[in-house]
């Protein structure tokens, strides 16, 4: 699929869009209604950027997710529910216009080569920590991409922890696996954005492991273990 050089940008607090992930959105602001109509009439693509923390005005983070509108359901009051499927990480470059909504130039971001032996060892550690999360009863709060997902699904599918582990084992691309886990388990917006902005797959997995270890430690402390 050919990616555009410019795209509408939807800036949202505490929201990240990972490649291959599913993101449900409720569109109600007039500018975003217009953005949705225009996107549906063109390539069905738009980007979602997290609002920079503590910024006094709308400020998209420098790395965003480019998404494809898979489902869009309009309502009588002009609002819509839609589901975006993440396509790629993109660098948000200069703004081309601000009204009626933001349009920015974007640049797709690709990971540098990695050490496969180290990455395999890190992935094994991630899987071990996911199994520990399951044993502790920690949730998998976010929807993720499913190989069996149909475009006409009205809502994102939900998955049991065992299904996520099974899906993880079926992946041969460690980058996709790291993104899947980050999307599915990290509750903190800043942690998810950190992973989104980390291009090096080995570094991404190391950071993911740090986040998972902290979550498990906090859970054990809360239970007095």
What does this structure look like?
By secondary structure, this protein is α+β, with helices and mostly antiparallel strands. The chain folds into two domains: 6-108, Archaeosine Trna-guanine Transglycosylase, Chain: A, domain 4 (Roll), CATH 2.30.130.40; 116-222, Methane Monooxygenase Hydroxylase, Chain G, domain 1 (Up-down Bundle). The protein has six helices and six strands, in the order E-E-H-E-E-E-E-H-H-H-H-H. It has helices at residues 30-40, 116-136, 161-170, 174-185, 189-197, 201-222, and strands spanning 6-12, 22-27, 45-50, 63-74, 80-97, 103-108. The chain has a five-stranded mixed barrel. Strand 5 and strand 6 form a beta hairpin. The radius of gyration is 18 Å and the shape is globular. The model is unreliable at 144-157 (pLDDT under 50).
Output the keywords.
Archaeosine Trna-guanine Transglycosylase, Chain: A, domain 4; globular; 38% helix; Methane Monooxygenase Hydroxylase, Chain G, domain 1; 24% strand; 225 residues; 5-stranded mixed barrel; alpha+beta; 2 domains
């Amino acid at each position: 699929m050919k990616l555009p050089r410019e795209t509408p940008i939807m800036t949202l607090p505490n929201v990240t869009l990972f490649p291959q992930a599913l993101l449900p959105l409720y569109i109600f602001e007039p500018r975003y209604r217009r953005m949705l109509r225009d996107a549906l009439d063109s390539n069905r693509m738009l980007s979602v950027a997290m609002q920079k923390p503590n910024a006094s005005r709308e400020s998209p983070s420098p790395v965003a997710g480019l998404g494809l509108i898979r489902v869009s359901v309009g309502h009588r009051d002009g609002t819509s529910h839609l589901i975006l499927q993440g396509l790629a990480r993109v660098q948000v470059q200069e703004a081309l216009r601000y009204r009626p909504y933001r349009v920015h130039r974007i640049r797709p971001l690709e990971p540098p080569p990695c050490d496969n032996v180290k990455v395999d060892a890190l992935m094994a550690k991630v899987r071990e920590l996911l199994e520990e999360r399951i044993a502790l009863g920690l949730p998998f709060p976010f929807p993720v991409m499913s190989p069996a997902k149909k475009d006409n699904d009205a809502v994102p599918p939900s998955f049991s922890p065992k299904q996520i582990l099974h899906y993880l084992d079926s992946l041969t691309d460690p980058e996709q696996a790291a993104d899947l886990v980050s999307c599915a388990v990290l509750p903190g917006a800043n942690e998810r954005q950190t992973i989104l902005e980390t291009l090096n797959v080995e570094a991404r997995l190391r950071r993911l492991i740090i986040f998972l270890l902290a979550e498990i430690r906090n859970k054990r402390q809360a239970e007095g273990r």
